[in-house]
Amino acid sequence: MKIIVFGATGDVGSKTVAEALRRGHKVTAVARSTERLAALKGDMTRVAHDLIQKPEGIHDLMAGHDAAISALRPASGHEAQLVPLTQAVLIAAQVADVPIYVTGGAATLKLTDDGEHTVLSAPNFLPDDIRPIAEACAAQDRVLNDHPGANWTCLRPPAILDGGMRTGRYALGRDALVTDDQGNSSISYADFAVALLDLAELQPRPGARLTVGR
């Protein structure tokens, strides 16, 4: 497959690029920083592009790819950019007629299957410094509903994403946090990338919101 990854130099994006190359896919890595793109290891096409400044050029970048993966995450203090960034890649995916796999956030997930509260609404669940990106992710989730014409699938992380090892193992869920036997909800960036690539290869019915954990 030919796969384009937006946000290719971030925590999720860089692991997604590495996983795609590991599987033998042809990769186009897109990010703002030429220097950070150059630091990615492997044989790929590297494209420095500012999606906020030049949203009109995104569908040209996507054209000819079998799948697009959005691993976009704004820097601290710029969390509100997540909404226009997501809108831009969704519009481009529809124009280019390319399925897109969007990295969402855990904010809208319930703490338990039968629970009342979500990650965002539960009292004292989120640290204050995490709340801005969580609120941005909740807004991002609402944006998905505004683009029914785009072939999108959203994969939401568990409560904790960490720098642990790649195991290749994970469990999928839908509306509630995936937890282990001890109630922990986490996954490594590398295993989250494994799940993203599995979805891109399987090409499920569009419009699904999923989550993952280990």
Write out key terms for the chains shown.
10 strands, two-stranded parallel sheet, 6 helices, alpha/beta, 214 residues, 8-stranded mixed β-sheet
Strand tally, please?
A: 10
The main sheet comes to: 8 strands, mixed
Instruction: List the strand order in the largest sheet.
Output: 3-2-1-4-5-6-10-8
Q: Which structural category do the helix and sheet elements fall into? A: alpha/beta
Shape: globular
Count of DSSP helices? 6
Low-confidence stretches: none
User: What is the ordering of alpha helices and beta strands?
Assistant: EHEHEHEHEHEEEEHE
What is the distance, rounded to the nearest whole angstrom, between the alpha carbons of the first and last residues? Answer: 27 Å
Mean pLDDT over the full residue set: 96
Oligomeric form:
single chain
* Helical residue percent band: 25-40%
CA gyration radius, whole angstroms: 16 Å
Strand share of the residues?
15-25%
Describe the structure.
This protein is of the alpha/beta class. It has helices spanning 11-22, 34-38, 58-62, 82-96, 131-144, 189-202; strands spanning 2-6, 26-31, 45-48, 67-70, 100-103, 152-156, 160-162, 171-173, 186-188, 209-213. Helix 4 links the parallel strand 4 and strand 5 (100-103). Helix 1 packs across helix 6 (189-202) and helix 4 packs parallel to helix 5. The longest helix has 15 residues, at 82-96. The chain is globular. The model has no long low-confidence stretch (mean pLDDT 96).
Task: Give a topology summary.
Elements: E1 2-6, H1 11-22, E2 26-31, H2 34-38, E3 45-48, H3 58-62, E4 67-70, H4 82-96, E5 100-103, H5 131-144, E6 152-156, E7 160-162, E8 171-173, E9 186-188, H6 189-202, E10 209-213
Parallel strand pairs: 1-2, 1-4, 2-3, 4-5, 5-6, 6-10, 7-9
Antiparallel strand pairs: 8-10
Helix pairs in contact: 1-6, 4-5
